[in-house]
Design a protein that fits this description.
With 161 residues, chain A is mainly alpha-helical. Chain A is built from six helices and no strands. The longest helix of chain A has 24 residues. In chain A, 27% of the residues are buried. The chains are: A mainly alpha (161), B mainly alpha (502). Chain A: Keywords: Membrane, Transmembrane, Transmembrane helix.
Chain lengths: 161, 502
């Protein structure tokens, strides 16, 4: 059993495609399981569970195929980004998420300059005057275009509404 | 038809806002296209939310402008800097940059502009004549045909858009599964909603689209943050001579035909059109030796081919509701935002709107011609915008845009999740466009399939006794099998070659 686990671990580390396939197989199985509680066929209609079950089965089948082909292809591809680059991407995603949270509470006008400035700062654009200038200017331009010119709503935030 | 068309032109010129928005769209499109890493798809997806409150014609022309400008704009940086702004301009970069090195950048830009304009305009005219005929034919479609058609659309994009057929199919299947979230189309039973009311009517596809096509690209550009280029080339001599025109004319016309045709085929987009046009132009050319060394003919072929693709790609989109590539998938979203369901009924119910749209598209191309001829060189300056500013702005627009569709912060969350998933999909070679297309067409696939079975009292005969349905289903199967057959054929050939060598 432990041998098996070690082998699986090795495979996971070696082949990202295999781990994605395994995850998809698990997801497919969960969907099939959930769909069993849906109403079934009624008269000529195949019912609510028909499509999810067929599609998940297809997903599982395709994932198995992907596993087979990646085992057959012995070449391990190197396509991961370098360490520092990964960090930047994760930072960017996290900041965007924080921006989303800030929008809920502070609204567009207050949250946007903070987000823009933080992003520029983290990505090595560090002339303070320029960072402040650009983040305020862009916030203003987008506000003018969206809220005033195009009448598109912008989040106002729970604190200010 | 001609009176509808001229009526359309009049409609637009009597509404200055519409005209202005169309021109604005072209300008934004050229900027987006010229910026490496930003594609026409991304531009249209980012601007889609702001068209929500507009009149249908105004909003759709703004997006068409971005679409057309985006395809053309890539050529500017391709010619001047050898960095194609869009994949479609990669072919242009070969000869375009060679011309720049020879000091003929101005001429190359002029040729690219004129060819893009000609290719695009003719393709819109073809669209205008072809679409009503196809729409008329498609009017006869009932549930089984609609089901087969939607399935065909998804299968073709899944099999073409990625590097691996299996991954494309996984993406398509996953998208179809996402499309099952929400109330089921016949019985109204809530599926996989987890009690969240926001997704009762399904996962909204516009935030998903913004996430997959725009946010994920922005995340990816965070990886390579510190590259800025400067335009050093001095650009002059924009005039082309009569001899030049005589030389490039046949190549433009041929590529326009090719591009339009390739555009009509679902799954093949402007990048393929540009490369095929390049190859064909070379094959027919009397000056083969110039190709690769800076040939105006080559630039003309690539650009007219790529832009002719736009009109072609709109044919299946507008008449059948089947988008052939990622840009038209976003355009489909734009039409649906306006409450217009693309398909044969569009021409029957909104005929005057469709023709106004066609007229407007030609106006977009005229605007592009004028802007391109006078200002192309200035657009090259956009590559000097530091990525440290550009990328945050794109992410901010993704967030603000997905909020603006419904004033709903939940949509922003969906966009973010889609953006993160999209980034990893890109990293691991899973194509995004089958997912988007499957989410859009998924509900149609399921409801039409079930409706068809109800029509036939549960008898599956209905899927192979009706000729159009049968043909469409066979075509889907063929689409899926072609790459496999090709691969087997290829390996056989390779092993034969090897044995010969041994």
């Amino acid at each position: 059993m432990t041998w098996f686990l070690i082998e699986v671990k090795k495979l996971l580390a070696k082949q990202i495609d295999i781990s994605i396939s395994l995850a998809l197989i698990v997801i497919g199985a969960i969907i099939i399981h959930t769909s069993r509680s849906f109403p079934g066929a009624q008269g000529a209609d195949v019912g609510a569970s028909f499509f999810p079950v067929i599609l998940s089965s297809l997903l599982i089948f395709l994932s198995l195929l992907l596993i087979l082909t990646s085992i057959k292809n012995k070449s391990v591809e190197t396509r991961t980004a370098g360490k520092s680059e990964w960090k930047k991407v994760v930072f960017g995603m996290a900041l965007t998420f924080i921006y989303f949270i800030l929008l809920i509470y502070l609204g567009y006008v207050a949250a946007t300059p903070i987000f823009l400035a933080a992003m520029m700062w983290i990505f090595n654009y560090r002339r303070i005057v320029q960072v402040v200038f650009w983040s305020l200017l862009i916030t203003g331009i987008i506000y003018a275009c969206f809220a005033m010119l195009l009448q598109v709503p912008l989040p106002s935030g729970v604190f200010f509404s | 038809m001609l009176d509808l068309f001229s009526q359309g032109i009049v409609n637009i010129f009597t509404q200055p806002t519409v005209l202005l928005l169309a021109v604005l769209g072209v300008v934004v499109g050229i900027v987006v296209g010229a910026l490496p890493g930003l594609t026409a798809t991304m531009g249209v997806a980012l601007l889609l939310p702001i068209t929500f409150g507009m009149e249908p014609v105004a909003g759709l022309l703004l997006l068409s402008g971005v679409y057309f400008g985006g395809i053309y704009g890539g050529s500017i940086t391709a010619i001047l800097l050898r960095t194609p702004g869009t994949p479609a301009a990669a072919a242009t970069a070969i000869d375009g940059y060679a011309l720049t090195k020879k000091g003929m950048a101005g001429k190359a830009l002029t040729v690219a502009t004129i060819s893009s304009f000609t290719g695009g305009t003719i393709s819109i005219l073809i669209l205008m004549f072809l679409a009503p005929i196809l729409a008329n034919f498609a009017l006869k479609f009932s549930a089984p045909e609609s089901f087969a058609l939607a399935l065909f659309g998804i299968s073709i994009i899944a099999s073409i858009s990625g590097t691996s057929l299996i991954k494309g199919l996984i993406a398509g299947t996953a998208g179809l599964l996402v499309a099952t979230v929400g109330l089921d189309p016949i019985q109204g039973f809530p599926r996989f909603t987890g009690g969240i009311t926001d997704i009762m009517n399904g996962i909204p596809f516009i935030p998903v689209m913004i996430g997959l096509f725009a946010a994920s690209e922005a995340f990816k550009s965070l990886e390579e943050m510190n590259i800025t280029e400067k335009v050093k080339t001095k650009i002059q001599r924009f005039m082309i001579s009569k001899a030049d025109v005589k030389k490039i004319w046949p190549s433009i016309l041929r590529s326009t035909g090719l591009g339009t045709f390739i555009g009509i085929i679902p799954g093949a987009g402007a990048d393929i059109a540009a490369f095929v046009s390049y190859n064909e132009a070379k094959r027919f050319s009397k000056n083969k030796e110039e190709y690769g060394e800076g040939s105006l003919e080559a630039v003309a072929a690539c650009e007219s081919g790529a832009n002719a693709c736009t009109g072609g790609a709109l044919v299946p989109l507008l008449t059948l509701g089947i988008p052939g590539d990622s840009v038209t998938a976003v355009m489909l979203g734009a039409l649906m935002v306006q409450g217009l369901q693309p398909g044969p009924m569009l021409f029957k119910d909104n005929g005057d709107l469709v023709y106004t749209l066609f007229s407007g598209m030609i106006i977009c191309y005229v605007a592009m011609l004028i802007i391109g001829l006078f200002a192309a060189r200035y657009f090259a300056k956009v590559v000097e915008i530091p990525k440290a500013i550009l990328t945050p702005v794109i992410l901010m627009l993704c967030v603000v845009g997905s909020y603006a569709i419904n004033n709903n912060l939940f949509d922003v969350l969906i966009m973010l999740v889609a953006g993160i998933i999209g980034y990893f999909m890109q990293k691991f070679d899973f194509p995004a466009s089958p997912v988007v297309l499957a989410i859009i067409l998924g509900p149609m696939v399921e409801s039409q399939f079930r409706r068809a079975l109800t029509l036939s009292n549960g008898n599956y005969d209905i899927f192979y006794t009706r000729p159009i349905t049968l043909v469409l289903l066979l075509l889907s199967l063929l689409t899926l099998l072609t790459p496999i057959i090709k691969k087997i054929w290829q390996t056989n050939k390779d092993s034969k070659d090897e044995s010969v060598r041994l």
